[in-house]
Amino acid sequence: MANLKDHLGRPVVAVTGIGVVTSLGIGKADNWAALTSGKSGIHPITRFPIDHLNTQMAGTVDFLESSSKGAAALTYELAESAAREAIEEAGFSEDDFGGPLFLASPPVELDWHDRLALFEAADEETSYNRVLSAARRLNSPEVFESTQFGSIADRLAEKLGTTGLPITLSTACASGATAIQLGVEAIRRGECDRALSIGADGSATAEALIRFSLLSALSTNSGPPSKASKPFSKDRDGFVLAEGSAALVLESLESALARGAEVLGILRGCGEKSDDFHRTRSKPDGSPAIGAVKAALADAGLSEDEIGYVNAHGTSTPENDKMEYLSLSTVFGERIKSIPVSSNKSMIGHTLSAAGAIEAAFSLMTMREGVIPPTINYDNPDPAIDLDVVPNVKRVAQVNTVLSNSFGFGGQNTCLVMAREPV
What we know:
There is one protein chain. By secondary structure, this protein is of the alpha/beta class. It folds into 2 domains: 13-108 and 148-419, Peroxisomal Thiolase, Chain A, domain 1; 113-145, no CATH class. Helices cover 34% and strands 18% of the residues. The chain contains 13 helices and 15 strands. The strands form 3 sheets. Strands 1, 2, 5, 6, 7, 8, 9, 10, 11, 14 and 15 form an 11-stranded mixed sheet that branches. The chain has a two-stranded antiparallel ribbon with strand order 3-4. The longest helix has 20 residues, at 71-90. It is globular. It comes from Oryzicola mucosus. GO terms for molecular function: 3-oxoacyl-[acyl-carrier-protein] synthase activity. Keywords: Transferase. Residues 10-420 form the Ketosynthase family 3 (KS3) domain.
């Protein structure tokens, strides 16, 4: 009989449903087949003009109905698609989930063409009155729902039948992992038997591309787009902007076993540490990332020797990959050379608010399937980063525990520890 309480006397949290959408496809099956075959979802941008842009590729999701309807509409459809897959797998009603919702999503704002359209539609002639007229139009329910942070979660809660006030959060690139952490903590506190945690991001807009370019964060690779994201390689030059979503149904192990649900994995630990060093750069000594990894291990009640695989943040930027190696080598010592450490972002790009959730989903699938996805485009190793990155080709291996890292801009770091089976 599995233990229903963890080492600190809290309810053990199980995963009973997983849903995924990325540029590789819709659903776990298509994504896993593409991911483990080393297929890239990075492609030339066709959604908006790219003339004069230094970066002309992305991992956009172009095959959904709302793909051309703006960031808010696409983020909603991504979130709903992943959520419905996860809820169906968990065996709950698709419109009466009965637990709280935690959604990680990008700060929603009007695209510039929408702003200009509002301005042009105003009746007044003077600029001042035009602005006032456009502002009045913002009071319409349609515009409100498409521009207000929290509106996506409100619509999801209504459609999916979640309970309580839905929580919308943004902790930069760690957002998806934070959404999972909030669900875990709600169950541990005894506030609910189950929770729905989602990370979704459909904000690969022209404006976002320009903003990240101004930060010198994006790859400017001029070769094949599929070769642009190259985590841990010596010639890495930035991340590739991408879109996607993942949803996890989290449930107390006691509840899952009582109703005969299939347990897909266990959320053993969550750790977070903030970094006030810089708005975009990481602290040079890596101490916040180190602290987040150690906090996750302590929360899980595991030692460094018990981690079998690391799903790296691995963005492919010169600084992040170096910092992540520093943090891992500090925590794990010489053993880090023998622990598989791969980056899903080499294939799907950086899905921003969704990244932590998508990578948690892939981590759970790695344990269930006994296959470690590769880090593709690893053709020029960086001698300063001595890691087993599972280069270019998947690896068959039994993995019982995973550390999944999410290190975000603004010093927002969240790490998750997952296990294949309950203790």
